[in-house]
Every structure is written in C-alpha cells, then in structure tokens.
Design goal:
This protein has 16 helices and six strands. It is mostly helical.
Length: 369
C-alpha cells in the first residue's frame, strides 16, 4: 500500500494519475501542484521518449520555468512536423527555406492569409452586405460602430484595430448590439459628417428636421450636389462640433470648408478616377505613389491640405481623386482592387484571391533562393 507524501491518503487508480504512476511519484491528484513538487522529484523524464531531463543538457531553462517536460530532441521533431504541416496546408513547396528573405516572405504570407480569413469570417457573421447601400464586394466592406463610438471603444481596448479587432469580435461571439457592416464610403461619410448621403432623400424638406429648404438655410455645397439637408443639421451632425453650436461663426467656418472642398473636387475631375463615383461626400484626395502618412505627420491634412493644393495650383503628378472604397482598398499598393482583383464577373471571390496570394508568394520565395 502506498500513500500520498503530502496528505497521506491511500493511493489508487482513482486519485493517482497515470503520469505519476509512470514516474513513480507518490502524489495524489488533489495535491498535484507542479510548482510545489518540482524540487521533490528524484526523476523527471521526457513525456515522449521518457529520457531523463537534465537542465542545461537536454532540457531548456525556458521549459523548466513553464513546467514543460520535453527534451530538446523531441521538441525539435514536433516543431519540424508542425512547420511541414503548415507549409503543406498553405501550398508551400516541400523544399527547405534557408535564407532570411525566404523566411520573411513565408511569415508574411502566413500572416496575410490568416488576416484575410479572420476578416472574412467576421464579415460573414454580420451578413457580408453594406446595411446602407447594399454593396456586397468584400474588399470594400468594414465593421461600423452603430452608436458612432468607435474611437472611444478602440481607446478602451488599447487602440485595438485591424485584424486584432476582428479577433476581439470573434472571442466575444460577434455581438450585434453596436456593430454592423458598412462599405468604406458609407462608413467614412458617417464618421466624418455624422450621416451618410444615402439617408438623404430628394425632397424639398430637410431629411432630419423637415423644415422647408431654400438658399437661405442651405450651404452652396449641398445645393450644388442636391443634398436635402439644412445648414443647421449639417452643423449638429458634424463630429467636430462637440458643443452642438449653430452660431453664425460656426456656419461661416463650415461654409468655407465646403467651398474649399468643392473647389478641389471640381479641379480634380469631379469623380473617382477608378470607379467613377461622383458623390461629393465619398470623395477625397489620394496620394498616387503613397506617402500620405508622412505628409499628415507634418500637418498636411484636412482643410490645410486642401489649401496647400490650391496654393500649388492643383498638382496632378502626385495626387488624384478617389472615393473612400477605392482609396482604402488600394492601401499601400499601387492599384485599387478594381484593377487587381477583377474578372469578367466582377470582383473575384475570397477563395480565388487567396489562391492568387499563395501563387505570388510561392513564386517570390522560389526567386529568393
């Protein structure tokens, strides 16, 4: 008869684990605290090959700290098997990757494919269709905060964004109380102006306060582009108007901003150079060759950027007019997905796009050998 070293209870198959029996350790399951028992063991063996583990020889100190009982030889075998399995699933050739550039490309491919799959899973859970305009092309869709509290929510989550935010939604079972699918056009207009122009009807009354519209209570910008909204509602919905001010000064400032933007839109063609979108609330200036982030760090954004363009006579060698859908799908690349992911039936589906990514990366990996 054998008893537990700590509580002296009689050991049997019910309270004595197979692992402790294999290593001949007299500890019951209730007293099985690895941290307390590690110094009392006379024999620690690899859980795969059962070889004795000796710290510094065949057992890493990292594994000792985290109580991982596996020798270096078995760990290397498991890692090789895991790597080969991932590469087979991703379609990478069986050849070994030796140089740093090949390893970097392989990691980049795995990360890109995983992020696209995580995003697509999230979009499928929320319907994969813009709840405002009904567009269903997946590169243009994104998650919107219904209550317009996205910035505050991201700050509360330590500025969580991108694929990390999609993972956050998955871990919380995709809540629907404050999230919906919108395209980049509708989402950006809603974020910047407080409303999407699709919610405005073509009537003689304001779409929000229902007063009769005239040139006296409308901005010229809205008159020109046939937006049924009064100047007071424009100011009330603006994200920068924290005090809900509709004073004469606020109207004058907003009117100057609209005039400047209208001037920019007219001199850059009046429509998206990629898809032809002409809705003014969806249009913005794109940096053709990238570098917008660096310019914004120097204060080149918003009304200051528009004034700089006017002062420099609308340079077209570095800047063009794009809608938010095309601008955001272009990202840091050279072309919008209308050029890179389009076939005779329209935008390619996600499975075809993943095949294209794998093919391009595998070719790059082979060329980097």
């Amino acid at each position: 008869m054998r008893n537990c070293k700590d509580c002296q209870v009689e050991l049997c198959d019910i309270n004595w684990s197979n692992g402790h029996q294999a290593f001949n350790i007299d500890v019951c399951k209730k007293c099985c605290n690895i941290q307390a028992q590690i110094n009392k063991r006379n024999y620690i063996g690899c859980k795969y090959c059962l070889d004795k583990l000796i710290l510094g020889e065949n057992w890493k100190e990292y594994y000792d700290n985290y109580k991982r009982y596996i020798c270096n030889i078995c760990e290397n075998k498991i890692q090789r098997f895991s790597r080969n399995k991932k590469r087979r699933n991703l379609g990478i050739p069986k050849q070994k990757i030796y140089n740093d550039e090949q390893r970097r490309l392989a990691r980049q491919m795995r990360s890109k494919i995983w992020s696209i799959e995580e995003r697509q899973l999230c979009l499928n859970k929320y319907g994969s269709v813009c709840n405002c305009c009904g567009i269903s092309d997946w590169p243009f869709l994104t998650i919107d905060h219904i209550n317009n509290n996205g910035a505050d929510h991201r700050r509360s989550l330590n500025k969580l964004s991108g694929v990390a935010f999609y993972r956050y939604l998955r871990e919380n079972d995709y809540p629907t109380d404050n999230y919906q699918i919108l395209c980049n056009n509708c989402n950006s207009a809603k974020g910047y102006h407080g409303f999407c122009p699709h919610s405005l009807n073509d009537k003689s009354l304001c779409s929000f306060c229902h007063i009769k519209l005239s040139s006296n209570n409308m901005f010229h910008f809205n008159i020109k582009f046939n937006h049924s909204i009064c100047d007071g509602c424009i100011l009330l919905h603006s994200r920068k108007n924290n005090n809900n001010s509709i004073s004469k000064r606020a109207r004058s400032s907003k009117n100057d901003t609209f005039k400047t933007k209208m001037n920019i839109i007219e001199n850059y063609g009046g429509e998206c150079v990629c898809c032809g979108e002409s809705e003014a609330y969806f249009l913005g200036i794109d940096h053709i060759y990238g570098g917008g982030g660096e310019e914004r760090k120097c204060g080149m954004y918003g009304i200051n950027f528009y004034r700089w363009l006017i002062k420099n006579k609308y340079p077209k060698n570095k800047y063009q007019l794009l809608c938010f859908n095309c601008n955001m799908s272009k990202g840091s690349g050279d072309k919008c997905c209308h050029d890179t992911m389009k076939n005779k039936d329209g935008i390619i589906n996600i499975d075809e796009y993943l095949i294209v990514i794998k093919t391009n990366y595998i070719e790059a990996i082979n060329n980097a050998a």
